[in-house]
Queue: 2 jobs
Job 1
Amino acid sequence: MAVQLQRTNKTVQLLAQRQPIYYTSVEDRSYEGGRAAAQTWADYINVDLEHHAFDLTLLHEFMRGLVDGGPTPSGHRTPAVIVTLPTNGSDEAAFRANEWMVRQVLAVGVHGILLCHAESPAAVKAFVESTRYPFQKIGRDVLAEGRRGSGGQAQAAAIWGLPVQEYLRVADPWPLNPDGELLLGLKIENLRALANAEAVAAVPGISFAEWGPGDMGMSLGLSDAHDPPYPPEMVAARNRVLAACKANGLAFLEQVTPENVAAQIDEGVMVGAGKQAQAAAEIGRGHTNRPKPW
């Protein structure tokens, strides 16, 4: 049975249906790399701009390749693309100084952003505001006016396959805006962020979060603790972020394997990551009775 297409962003569609999502990363971000990645098994493609070159010309070519290589096996125009930024959520002033990065990546046509080192609730609010157009009113009792300006919407709308006015309407964070198609996430991945886990997770406009075990381990004095099994202090950090996600209705991102994916989903993991994510996704999608094609 074909998936009923209601959304541009496949991850939003699935999470709205309470279906876990799974992602992959790609090395080839050229136009041809995008054409090949359009047929990925994954629900979204993670593009790491935190540790790799902030090359948006290349990313735009990759997005064009995704369009030309589509539609996806599930019938979507492209897989969702979510990027990590080289700026952090350490404090509001630092983020405001770098919010130009948000405007740039959204104009390329990506579907979401993952903010690293989300330490400050004020910085996270600034992050959400930077993704929004000023005319969006939902959530303005907590959030200030959106700071995304006019100028990049035509290019992004072309990637999404939408009229410009429709893109302007739906290019807003979900689930804050029920019609929104942007997925915003946080990495609560050091002790400063952990101390504010509940407050940053409560900021309207955030959809998902993770505990970033590699960086969290370093913050705890462990140079290489990215993969399980984890020591007790790592488990405690993980559980606090998971609890903050549950309390605020956020999807929790964590590694999954074929052996543990069902248990992870049952515990609350809604975004599956890891080296074995493809094999785990096959099992996890069956576990949650996701309609095919995937």
Note: The chain has one domain: 22-252.
Job 2
Amino acid sequence: MFSPITAALITDAHIKRGHSVLDVATGPGEPALSIAELIGPQGEVWGVDPAPEMVAGALRAAANYGFRNVHFEVAFADHLSFGTGTFDAVVSRFGVMFFPSPLDGLREMLRVLKPNRKLAVAVWHFAEHNPFHYVLSRVVDRYVKPAPIEPDTPDAFRFASPGKLLEIFKSAGAVEASERLLQFRIEAPVSLEDFWVLRSEMSDKLRSRLATLSAEQVTEVRSQVIAAARQYSTNHGVSFPAEVLIVSGKKK
């Protein structure tokens, strides 16, 4: 679903065949696995994530694909086990929004970069521009009042405001830091029913809120979400317009 974001990160981090690349907050293995295919057997990718179950899933996926040039380990962004100047590029897709300290995480990611190499990350733009998120959240909001979110609380839209993450890049020591808006479509060959399952299970926050509802209310929410998402249904699955910010910078 997020392959256009992976392509943008590869472009902005200047990733090429034979490079060594670090993917921070890799989750179940992306974009590390896509990058591993691009860089070829002469290159090497490491994916790190703080959740052991995510790393276990990434290891299974790598084994299924037969990739020998990709490795995964449990690690936090602000405490990486790699030496200074190890990688040709560092990327992170939808990770930095959840770092306890984005500044410390970015500093550490820059530390393991080689000089004059690039770090690139992707974060969601405003929620109202991303129906993949709001189609479900707006319905749930009618049943469970959302808790107020402090300005710097870890959240999917923590860095939706243009320039906010860019300033942290600069504070972390990145040079030639830049930001661009990526508009694309989230396309997946899934039914609306499968979309409901996907979205209701991929967010801890949403799962917690849905858990407070009765079975009857959850059924009502499901029906309303599927109805709201119908406008994004196609003959090939679902297709949502989407917007993310790609922020990048270079190590001195």
Note: The beta strands are 20-24, 44-49, 70-74, 87-93, 113-124, 175-188, 233-234, 237-250.
